[in-house]
Write a structure and sequence with these properties.
Layout (H helix, E strand, L loop, with lengths): L1 E4 L16 H11 L3 E3 L6 H10 E3 L5 E3 L17 E14 L2 E11 L2 H12 L11 E2 L3 H11 L4 E4 L19 H5 L8 E3 L6 H4 L9 E3 L14 E4 L5 H9 L6 E6 L10 E3 L4 E3 L1 H6 L15 H8 L13 E4 L3 H9 L6 H14 L2 H6 L3 H8 L1 H11 L4 E3 L8 E3 L3 H7 L2 H5 L2 H9 L20 H7 L4 H6 L23
Parallel strand pairs: 1-2, 2-5, 5-7, 9-10, 12-15
Antiparallel strand pairs: 1-11, 3-4, 4-5, 5-6, 6-8, 11-12, 13-14, 16-17
Helix pairs in contact: 2-3, 10-11, 10-14, 11-13, 13-14
Bound molecules: zinc ion (ZN) (3 copies).
C-alpha cells in the first residue's frame, strides 16, 4: 500500500510558497509519510529545468530527489525516500454551447521528455511562462486530444470537479454532464478529483459518476499542506501501475482516499464572504440566492451543486464504494486538543516531537496506538486523535472561499481531561460534563458515510469519573467506515 498526492503546485504558480521546490517537497513528504508526489507545473520551462537538475529516474515513470539535494531534518525519517510523478494543472477557459467554461484539468505523464514535448505543443496556444498553472484558451476536449496525441499513456483527471468557479461541474464554470465537456473522448477519462469540499459519499449520489475512480489530492500551495487529501494505492509503485489502478476501478489496486471532512473545504456551503454570511442549500433556495445582508448574489457551494445534479438520496452507498478516511491535519488536531491556535509555537513544537518520537504524520493520525500517543504527547492529544478517528469533530462549514472551522474539544473538556477541573472543582462541574459530552453535539453532515457504532454509554457513564479512563477504554485504531483495523501499511520506501 502506498499513499499518493498527485496534484500540488511549484513556486512558479501564483500564490504559492517559495518552498515549493523539490528539496522541501521531499522533506515534507518524509514528515507526512507520503510515498508519491505529483511534482506539479511541468508546463513551466524553468521548473522543468529545475526538475532535470534535481531529480533522477527511479521506478518506471517515476523520479526521486538526488542525494545531494536532500535536506537533513531532525524531525523526518531520513531513510524514507519519496518518489515524484510528472504532473501539471491547466486552466482551460473557453466558450462552448453558448456559455463560458472554466475548467481545471490535471495531467500526469510518465517522463520529463513527454512533459517537454507536450509543453512545446501547448506553447503554440498560450503563455506557459507567467504561471506554473497556465491559463489557456483551449477547450478541455482539445487539451485531452493533444495530450493523448503526445503521450497515449497520459493520465487526464478533471481537477476538484465541484468548485464553483473553475471546474468540470462548477456552478459558475462547468457542465451538467461530463459528456458535454469531453464528447467522444469521455472514455479516456478514468478518474475524477473530488476536491476538498466534497468527499466520496457526496459523489456516490450521482449515478453518472459510477464509472469513474474518485481520487483525492491536496492541491497544496505550500509543502506543509501536502497530503491533506491523498489517494491510497495497493499496487506496485510505478507509473504504469498507477495508470492501471485508476483505469480498473473494480480491482483493489486503487484502494481509496484520505479526505478532508468536506465541511472543512472552502466551498462546502453557500454564502457571501464579504458579509460573513454562510447558508445551507435549502436556506439559499428560500432566499432566492440573495444575500440577506447586502442583497447581492450568494456564491453557491459544492453541497448545493452536488444536490442539484444528484439522482440518488443522501446516504446511498454503492456496492463498489472504495474505502475513505476523513482526517484533519495533525497540527490542527494538536491545536484544537490543547486549545491553542494552529500557528502557535507550542503547537509547532508538539508537532515536531510527535513525528520525531512516533513516526510520520499520516501514521500518527491513522494508525499509531493511542496509548503510544498518550505516552509521548499526553492525554489531550491522544483523545483528540481518538475523536478524529471516530469522526467526532465539530465543524463550522466553509463557504465562498473561507475554510471551515474545526473544534475537537472545548475548554471545559480540555480542563477536565488535563486534570485541572477534575482535581479542583466539585460535583457540579462533573455533572455538567456528564450531561454534555462533545460527542452528543451535532456530527458533521458526512455522517451518512458508514461510521462504526460508538459505545457512548460507556463514556457517558464514566464521564464524571477519571479522565484517564476515557483513553484506556477506547477501541484504538479503528477506522471510520468499516470498524475494522486499518490495513497494514507497507514499510516506508527505503533508499
Ligand atoms: Zn485548480
Ligand atoms: Zn491546483
Ligand atoms: Zn452579502
Amino acid at each position: 500500500m502506498f499513499i499518493a498526492d498527485l496534484h500540488i503546485h511549484s513556486k512558479y504558480s501564483r500564490a504559492t510558497s517559495k518552498e515549493c521546490i523539490p528539496e522541501f517537497l521531499d522533506l515534507w513528504a518524509r514528515r507526512k509519510g507520503l510515498d508519491l508526489i505529483g511534482i506539479g507545473d511541468f508546463t513551466h520551462p524553468a521548473w522543468r529545468e529545475e526538475l532535470k537538475e534535481k531529480l533522477i529516474p527511479s521506478e518506471d515513470g517515476l523520479y526521486t530527489l538526488k542525494k545531494e539535494f536532500r535536506k537533513e531534518d531532525d524531525i523526518a525519517n531520513t531513510n524514507f525516500k519519496p518518489r515524484f510523478i510528472l504532473s501539471s494543472e491547466i486552466s482551460c477557459i473557453y466558450k462552448k454551447n453558448g456559455k463560458v467554461r472554466k475548467v481545471h484539468n490535471l495531467i500526469l505523464l510518465p517522463s520529463l521528455e513527454d512533459a517537454e514535448v507536450l509543453s512545446h505543443r501547448l506553447e503554440a496556444i498560450g503563455n506557459l511562462h507567467s504561471d506554473g498553472r497556465p491559463i489557456l484558451g483551449l477547450d478541455s476536449k482539445d487539451l485531452l486530444k493533444i495530450t493523448l496525441d503526445v503521450c497515449p499513456e497520459a493520465i487526464f483527471i478533471p481537477a476538484h470537479i465541484w468548485t464553483p468557479h473553475f471546474s468540470l461541474f462548477g456552478a459558475y464554470s462547468g457542465f451538467d454532464d461530463i459528456t458535454e465537456c469531453f464528447e467522444d473522448l469521455t472514455g479516456h477519462i478514468y478518474a475524477l478529483e473530488t476536491g476538498l469540499s466534497s468527499d466520496p459519499s457526496m459523489n456516490w449520489r450521482l449515478s453518472a459518476l459510477d464509472g469513474f475512480t474518485l481520487v483525492s489530492n491536496s492541491d497544496a500551495h505550500s509543502p506543509a499542506n501536502l497530503a491533506r487529501e491523498a489517494s491510497l494505492f495497493d499496487t506496485t509503485l510505478s507509473y504504469p501501475h498507477v495508470a492501471r489502478a485508476l483505469q480498473n476501478r473494480d480491482t483493489r489496486e486503487f484502494y481509496g482516499t484520505i479526505e478532508f471532512f468536506p465541511e472543512e473545504g472552502k466551498y462546502h456551503y453557500d454564502g457571501h464572504r464579504t458579509c460573513k454570511v454562510c447558508m445551507k442549500p435549502t436556506d439559499t433556495k428560500a432566499a432566492s440566492g440573495i444575500c440577506p445582508v447586502c442583497g447581492g448574489w450568494i456564491t453557491v457551494g459544492v453541497l448545493h451543486r452536488v444536490e442539484a445534479l444528484a439522482d440518488r438520496s443522501e446516504g446511498f452507498v454503492p456496492p463498489w464504494a472504495k474505502h475513505f478516511e476523513s482526517l484533519i491535519p495533525l497540527h490542527e488536531v494538536v491545536a484544537s486538543s490543547l486549545g491553542l491556535t494552529p500557528s502557535s509555537i507550542k503547537v509547532k513544537e508538539k508537532y515536531g516531537n510527535l513525528i520525531r518520537n512516533l513516526g510520520p504524520e499520516l501514521f500518527i493520525l491513522r494508525e499509531a496506538p493511542l496509548n503510544d500517543i498518550e505516552y509521548k504527547a499526553g492525554v489531550l492529544i491522544a483523545e483528540g486523535i481518538r475523536r478524529l478517528r471516530h469522526g467526532k469533530v465539530e465543524i463550522q462549514p466553509g463557504y465562498d472561499g473561507e475554510y471551515g472551522k474545526i473544534k475537537i474539544m472545548d475548554k471545559n473538556e480540555i480542563n477536565l481531561l488535563s486534570g485541572q477541573s477534575y482535581l479542583f472543582t466539585g460535583q457540579e462541574d462533573q455533572k455538567q460534563f456528564a450531561s454534555k459530552p462533545a460527542w452528543t453535539q451535532k456530527a458533521p453532515a458526512h455522517k451518512a458515510a458508514p461510521v462504526p457504532p460508538l459505545e457512548d454509554s460507556r463514556l457517558q457513564d464514566k464521564a464524571a469519573g477519571i479522565a484517564q479512563k476515557l483513553i484506556e477504554d477506547m477501541p484504538y485504531g479503528l477506522n471510520r467506515d468499516s470498524g475494522k483495523p486499518f490495513p497494514p501499511m507497507s514499510p516506508p520506501l527505503l533508499s
